[in-house]
Amino acid sequence: MTQETIARVRINLNDIGPEIWRIVEMPVAGSLKMLHDVIQAAMGWQDYHLWHFEAGERRYGVPNPEWPDRNLAAARNVKLGTLIDRDVRQFTYTYDMGDDWRHTVVVEAVELGEHEIKYPRFVTGERRCPPEDVGGLPGFERFLQALSDVAHEEHQQLYEWYGGPFDPLDIDEVASKNAVAAIAIRRHAGKVAYEKSRNRH
């Protein structure tokens, strides 16, 4: 496998303490759509909702032909390396415009990856991300209070809604690693298929 340039990227969920964060290694040749997929996998989101990146004056997401937005570029057409080349090392990722989960994305380093590693790769992180559709920051705070107190009037209702106990310290690292690795495997398979098709011509 050829050596490729990768970015070490830190993702922080804004306005929550203690911090909920992840570090991933992302190929700079990968698109912002791939970075979205990696953030979803690493954080533990379920990719149910709309999302976009904001970098300077530009926004990147999934344009809707029925609702044209001249200020929204297609994330799949823009590589992470393009932002880095513009000296953009910090930008915002927003997921679920209703709950409004904003993340700060920081490119901490750019370096050559290891020869035998398939990228992207999950590195580390702390604390579980909020459940989908919990109601944004206020809803998440209420959810945590209710689940930590069996006497709370909403304890049973939210316990059943979530489907069991919620441990804010358990990020389920194995699941995150596997989910990001699945993206890397798909990417590698696509590159191999592309090279084979080129060699046939």
What does this protein structure show overall?
The chain has helices at 32-43, 80-85, 136-148, 155-162, 173-200; strands at 5-13, 20-27, 51-55, 58-61, 72-74, 90-95, 101-112, 121-126. It is an alpha+beta fold and 201 residues long. It has a single domain (5-129, 171-200), classed as Structural Genomics Hypothetical 15.5 Kd Protein In mrcA-pckA Intergenic Region, Chain A. Helix 1 packs antiparallel against helix 5 (173-200) and helix 3 packs across helix 4. The radius of gyration is 19 Å and the shape is globular. The model has no long low-confidence stretch (mean pLDDT 93).
Secondary structure layout plus pairing:
Blueprint: E1 5-13, E2 20-27, H1 32-43, E3 51-55, E4 58-61, E5 72-74, H2 80-85, E6 90-95, E7 101-112, E8 121-126, H3 136-148, H4 155-162, H5 173-200
Parallel strand pairs: 4-5
Antiparallel strand pairs: 1-2, 1-7, 2-8, 3-4, 3-6, 6-7
Helix pairs in contact: 1-5, 3-4
Quick tags:
201 residues, alpha+beta, Structural Genomics Hypothetical 15.5 Kd Protein In mrcA-pckA Intergenic Region, Chain A, 8-stranded mixed β-sheet
